[in-house]
Specification:
Distance between the termini: 143 Å
Largest sheet: 2 strands, antiparallel
Keywords: Coiled coil
Structural class: alpha+beta
Strand content: 15-25%
Shape: rod-shaped
Oligomer: single chain
Number of strands: 2
Radius of gyration: 50 Å
């Protein structure tokens, strides 16, 4: 920093420039009539230096000689040739990772199959219970209706034969609806028979 301060004090700071040694992506383009490379993005930076001739004179320099030594520039073919052990280690690690992912996926698929089976079993059990509940509710309603029918028939002032006929007629009834009317009808019928017998 003292060098920069000295240059500043001597009003020579404008003589300094910046040189960047970086990695990036570029594309060929024509700028102000000249073919050049346009930097699209920097993907890595090695160094930034203050120099008297910055930016390699305003051009982009390729370090082809570094391409085989620089890990950021090495291509797969060179890596296979110079470091087959490293390539094998990477391939082995990738294979192991894929194997673990496949195993995990198979375990998940097996778990899904198990859970689907449990869902099917539980659904069947639920449906069976719903059916049994509906049947039990229906039986309860029928039993309550039959109790009301029996009580109404027993209280009716009818001969036993008429009571038996009413009980038989309503034996499968699920509601007591119509029993009072049927009893009244029997009473009216017996009354008519009694009157007919008086003549």
């Amino acid at each position: 920093m003292t060098k920069l301060a000295t240059l500043r004090d001597k009003k020579l700071l404008s003589e300094m420039g910046i040189s960047i040694n970086a990695l990036g992506n570029a594309s060929k383009a024509k700028v102000e009539g000249a073919e050049t490379l346009v930097i699209e993005e920097f993907t890595g930076c090695r160094s930034v230096d203050f120099v008297t001739e910055p930016g390699a004179g305003g051009s982009v320099t390729f370090y082809e000689s570094d391409r085989n030594r620089d890990v950021d520039l090495v291509e797969l073919s060179a890596l296979k040739e110079r470091r087959p052990d490293l390539v094998k280690a990477i391939e082995s690690a990738v294979r192991e990772e894929i194997k673990q992912e496949v195993k995990h996926k198979m375990e998940l698929e097996q778990r899904v199959t198990e859970l689907e089976g449990q869902i099917e079993t539980l659904t069947t059990e639920r449906d069976d219970l719903k059916t049994k509940m509906a049947e039990a509710e229906k039986a309860k309603v029928k039993a309550e209706a039959q109790a009301v029918i029996k009580e109404a028939v027993d209280k009716a002032e009818l001969p036993d034969a008429a009571k038996e006929r009413l009980t038989e007629r309503f034996k499968d009834a699920e509601t007591a609806e119509g029993i009072e009317e049927a009893i009244k009808s029997e009473i009216d019928y017996i009354a008519k028979l009694s009157e007919a017998g008086k003549v």
